Amino acid sequence: MKWIPNKKLKMKVRLNKFLSECGIASRRKSEDFINEGRVTVNGKIVSELSVFVDEEKDIVTLDGEKIKAQKKVYFLLNKPRGFVTTTDDEKGRKKVTDLIKSNQKIYPIGRLDYDTTGVLLLTNDGNFTNFLTHPKNKIPRVYKAILNRKLIEDDRNKLIKGVFLDGRRSRFDKIEYLKKNVYEKVIVTATEGRNHFVKRMFEILGYNVTSLERISYGVFNVNEIPLGHYKKLSYAEIENVYKTYSK
C-alpha cells in the first residue's frame, strides 16, 4: 500500500469490509446483503463483491438507509501485565480494550502475551492494521527480553542467521546485549509478527524468556506513557507511518 499524503487518510476499501467496519454485519453477512441486491453505491444497486468504495465520497445505503462511515481512531497503549490482547475472552480475563475509553469499536494490532508489556496499537482501521502487519513492509518490532541463562555468542549468531520455526527459516534482524557483560538481558529486533515469535525463537535453542517488553513498533514507543496508560494518535502520526515504511 503506497502512502497517500492526505490528512484524512482517504482510501478505498472493499464494500463488504466497509459495511463490516461500520458495524452493519460481519463481512460474510455483508456479502449476503450485496448478493441479495440490498446495497447501493451512489444510487446504483451493487451485485459484485469486488466493488471498492471511497468512504469519504461515495454514498452507500442498505435497504434505502444511508450508512455513515465510522470515524477512524488510533491509540498507543503501554500494555501492563495481566491483560489479554483480544476484544473478547471466554475466561473472563481483563482485556486491553478495557483500558481505553473510545466510542468506537477498536481492536489490537497484533498480539502481546498475557504477561508481556509495552507498545500495543489499537484501532478500527483495517487498512492501517494490514499495512503494519504485512511482512512485505518489514516494520521493525523491538523487544527487551530477559532470559533464564546467558545467551552465548554462537546461539546469538544462529538466531540472526536463521533457525527453522514452523517449518520455515526465521530470524531476528538484530540482537544486542542490554549491558556489557550481562548476557541474559538482550534487545531483539524482528520484522516478523507471528504469535509468541520471540519466545518461541529462543525456545528452539533451549532458552526461556522470563520477561518480555516490546519497547517499540515502527516509529512508536511508550517512553512517555506510564504503564497501563495510553494516548490517542493524530492523523499526522498515522500518515508518518505510511510515509516512513511505504516502498
What report would you give on this structure?
With 247 residues, the protein is of the alpha+beta class. The chain has helices at residues 15-21, 27-35, 126-133, 153-161, 197-204, 235-245, and strands at residues 12-14, 39-41, 44-45, 52-54, 60-62, 65-66, 74-79, 107-108, 117-123, 141-147, 163-165, 168-170, 174-179, 182-190, 209-217, 220-221, 230-232. Strands 7, 8, 9, 10, 13, 14, 15, 16 and 17 form a nine-stranded mixed beta sheet that branches. A four-stranded antiparallel beta sheet has the order 3-2-5-6, with no helix packed on it. Strands 1-4 form a two-stranded antiparallel ribbon. Strand 11 and strand 12 (168-170) form a beta hairpin. Helix 1 (15-21) crosses helix 2 (27-35). The longest helix has 11 residues, at 235-245. The termini are close together. The model is unreliable at 1-8 (pLDDT under 50).
